[in-house]
Design brief:
With about 160 residues, the protein is an alpha+beta fold. It contains six helices and four strands, in the order H-H-H-H-E-H-E-E-H-E.
């Protein structure tokens, strides 16, 4: 049976999503529990694999990687991909924030970040060309991030 977080667990995750550095005392005040109860709940969330770590949230533009694009990759001849070599090649690519195997016309979706259009062009025309098995690519330039959440909770 899978772990089912209750409303307090979900509220703790909402609070941590807003401020990943929130002190346990502050979290306890906000959910009206003792520090030890909140500490135990966070430990349970970690033990159950729900809470996998704490990571900083950065502004890509201020970091110097403000140009973003989604790149759809489609498989080679016959549309069949050998996924293990593909995974290794994708992991070696620079500028890739996310790579996901997807369904539909494409096989892989990349989120790529670059400092400017020249760097994105070099990625598309040089780096990405070293990936074998690709039949085609489609690049979608991101104009604006309308919603950008680190995670979505059930019911959101």
């Amino acid at each position: 049976m899978s772990f089912q977080p209750d409303e307090v667990d979900l509220e703790l995750l909402r609070l941590l999503r807003a401020d990943g550095r929130a002190a346990v005392t502050r979290l306890a005040d906000q959910v009206h529990l003792s520090r030890s109860a909140v500490h135990q709940r966070l430990a349970t969330l970690a033990e159950q694999g729900v809470l996998t770590g704490f990571a900083p949230t950065v502004d890509p533009t201020r970091l110097g990687t403000g140009v973003a694009a989604f790149v759809l990759l489609s498989g080679g001849p016959g549309g069949r991909l050998d996924y293990q070599p593909l995974r290794e090649q994708l992991q070696a690519l620079p500028h890739v924030e996310m790579a996901s195997l997807v369904t539909g016309e494409a096989d892989v979706l990349l989120l790529v970040r670059a400092s400017d259009l020249d760097e994105l062009r070099r990625f598309l025309l040089e780096d990405l060309q070293r990936v074998t098995q690709l039949r085609s690519t489609l690049t979608l330039l991101v104009l604006d991030d309308v919603i950008r959440r680190p995670f979505v909770l059930p019911g959101e």
